[in-house]
Amino acid sequence: MHYQITTLPNGLRIISEDMPSVASVAVGCWVDTGSRDETPEEAGASHFLEHLLFKGSERWSARAISEAFDATGARHNAFTSKEYTCFWARMRDEDIPLGIEILAEMLQRPAFRQEEIDSERNVVLEEINMNEDDPTDVAHEEFIRTLWGGHPLAPPILGTRESITTMSRDTIAGYWRRRYSPRSVVIAGAGRIAHDDLVAMAEERFGTWEGAEVERQVVEPRVTAGVGVRTKDTEQAHLVFGSPALQRDDDRRYALLVADHVLGGGMSSRLFREIRETRGLAYAVHSFRLPFQDAGATAIYVGTTPDQAPEVLKLVRAELDKLIEHGLTAEELARAKGHVKGSLALSLEDVNSRMNRLGRNELTGLPHLSVDEIVDKVDQVTSDDIVDVARVAYGGPYVLGAVGPFSADDLAPFVA
After folding, report:
1. Which of 17, 38, 42, 50 is the catalytic position?
2. Is the entire prediction scored with pTM above 0.90?
3. The domain containing residue 36 runs over which residues?
4. Cα separations in angstroms, 248 against 37, 227, 365
5. Could you tell me if residue 230 is inside a domain?
């Protein structure tokens, strides 16, 4: 990994990796703001802004932005998380000046036309409706809400129907002024582009942008065992079971990456084999990690019939206990390491993946490690490391988010 980084006088950071063997460039504007940075009045503002900035500036209308990208065959989009927002475009190398110009207009000079706010408000409300109609999404939201309670990470990224319906233009514009600043933005690029050329484009389009440092409330949450249920008469129960785990910069994250793959990361994982292949209790079962700046969690998702939910939850607990008490076999450890290393290599063959890695790591303060450096860290993981991290990441207190025809009292014994 050969990257270069430059910081402009206004605090804007530009990081890039030249990939001369490709014909395209992926560029992303990473903003250090997400749902965790919102006040109750602003709930959902980060995601709402993601939509509204594509409505353009006084100079670039929404239609003009779409037509300009379409005319070059570019791909462009954005996404919002709990801790950051990213606006990106992938284009031919010769078209990237246009992409930088459009992204600069969107971020620095949004028009916030009232009629467009009202129109996009309906779009976001439909997105919330779609989320509410997906029981898998609801189960995940119940898990996070129960896990982190009143912590800034708990509220949903989309906001609520009430917050989006009542959010005024002044509230949206005020949030943009407070959170969007050159000091809170990283421009990341990967593909056929020289770093000096990207810096020159960024300096031309973003160099006069002014703004102060952006602060964030950072506090480690207190987690207690609990159950969050959305009671519905459904044919399938959706269960998300987990516990607090590592923050994103914890040195043990490589051991957890290996453990997570063995537990529920693929078709050879313990949970998949035991719950789906051996017992036929579910179609979908997998584990995942949620690492953030001041908190982290591990979780397991299972979709099963309501009457089989108790048996499934007992099996999940049993597999966690086995991992904590006995760790991995030598064969499992070797196979998991091979998977992690292979997946890493495959993911870095795409310019978007490399841009995402550069931008996310720079914005969140994680080191920019080469593939060889990461492989070395994975290779150093031992069986003892797996047991140690399993005790921390899978040992409770346990939290369960669920959708199905049961109450919290019905499921409480499984988190005790």
Report:
1. 50
2. yes
3. 3-206
4. 18, 25, 10
5. yes
